[in-house]
């Protein structure tokens, strides 16, 4: 009978509703979300691969840079001196930089280089000492624990010592008598006198006076004046010519190193170069001339000239 039984609607559980939703097009809505999520993941993965490729490309570039900055080795030959090598090899910083990079090989005297000696060109150009400063900054933690005033006080004496040393050195290279004149080499003997005859000289006689001087000995201007020339001069090797206030000229030949240039003003006793054996020379010494003009053939007795200026020779 209809009155006794009531029609009950079948309850649908969560699972049934889910299936129903899929059946009514829920899957159509869900699929694009899945596709979009996959595409988004692919886009994120792609940039991650690019840095790896960039790193791979950077590696060859770094190796090329290392090869380009690699130092080269130069073998010293007869007649070489540091300023000549620096100029020929285009060393940035000149002979001073070349000497600094090879001081352990050359030693304390920059003019004493020998055939066969191996010099490194550009040894420290890519990694100067100043670049090492960041690595030294790490101990700053320990320094922080110490009183901050201690470091400046410790550094001050060192700076003062350096200044005193430099002043003493410059004073020692400018010794001269009251007239401002001095000998070209300190405490040196004359080994070959002016006008000595012999076939070794193109004029048939010696046009100057030779002073005993080992290679690398300090050579100084005999008096105040202006540098007329400084450089290579054939048989004289490296030479310097200076015009003095009285109109006379002095010449210094066979030098291993030049420390002045044309047009520079010098004082009596100032170091202008280092002795050597460049040019037509049988061994290290200083060939010294006094002339009435700047060129060869106008020579006068150099010892007599020095004595006329109160120099004891």
Q: Would you write up a description of this structure?
A:
- By secondary structure, this protein is an alpha+beta fold.
- Among the domains are: 71-126, LysM domain (Membrane-bound Lytic Murein Transglycosylase D, Chain A, Roll), CATH 3.10.350.10; 190-308, Glucose Permease (Domain IIA) (Distorted Sandwich).
- It contains eight helices and 13 strands.
- The protein has helices at residues 14-69, 82-88, 94-101, 103-106, 133-136, 140-145, 150-172, 302-308, and strands at 72-75, 118-121, 190-192, 209-211, 218-220, 225-232, 238-244, 249-255, 257-258, 265-266, 271-274, 286-291, 299-300.
- The strands form three sheets. Strands 3, 4, 6, 7, 8, 10, 12 and 13 form an eight-stranded antiparallel beta sheet that branches.
- β12 and β13 (299-300) form a beta hairpin.
- α2 (82-88) packs across α3.
- The radius of gyration is 41 Å and the shape is globular.
- 25% of the residues are buried.
- Residues 15-49, 125-137 and 149-174 have low confidence and may be disordered.
């Amino acid at each position: 009978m209809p009155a006794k039984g009531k029609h009950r609607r079948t309850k649908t559980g969560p699972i049934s509703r889910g299936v129903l939703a899929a059946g009514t097009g829920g899957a159509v809505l869900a699929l694009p979300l899945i596709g979009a999520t996959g595409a988004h993941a692919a886009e994120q993965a792609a940039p991650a691969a690019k840095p790896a490729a960039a790193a791979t490309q950077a590696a060859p570039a770094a190796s090329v840079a290392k090869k380009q900055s690699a130092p080269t080795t130069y073998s010293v030959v007869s007649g070489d001196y540091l300023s000549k090598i620096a100029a020929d090899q285009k060393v940035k910083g000149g002979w001073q930089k070349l000497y600094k990079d090879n001081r352990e090989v050359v030693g304390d005297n920059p003019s004493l280089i020998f055939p066969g000696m191996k010099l490194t060109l550009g040894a420290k150009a890519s990694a100067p000492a100043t670049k090492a400063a960041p690595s030294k900054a790490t101990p700053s933690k320990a320094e922080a624990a110490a009183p901050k005033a201690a470091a400046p006080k410790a550094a001050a004496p060192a700076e003062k010592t350096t200044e005193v040393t430099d002043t003493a050195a410059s004073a020692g290279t400018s010794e001269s008598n009251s007239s401002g004149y001095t000998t070209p080499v300190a405490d040196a003997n004359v080994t070959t006198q002016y006008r000595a005859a012999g076939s070794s000289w193109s004029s048939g006689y010696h046009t100057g006076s030779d002073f005993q001087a080992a290679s690398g000995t300090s050579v100084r201007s005999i008096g105040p004046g202006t540098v007329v020339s400084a450089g290579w001069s054939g048989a004289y090797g490296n030479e310097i010519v200076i015009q003095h206030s009285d109109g006379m000229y002095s010449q210094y030949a066979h030098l291993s190193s030049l420390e002045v240039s044309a047009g520079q003003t010098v004082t009596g006793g100032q170091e202008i170069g280092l002795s050597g054996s460049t040019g037509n020379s049988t061994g290290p010494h200083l060939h010294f001339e006094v002339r009435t003009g700047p060129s060869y053939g106008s020579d006068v007795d150099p010892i007599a000239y020095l004595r006329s200026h109160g120099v004891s020779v």
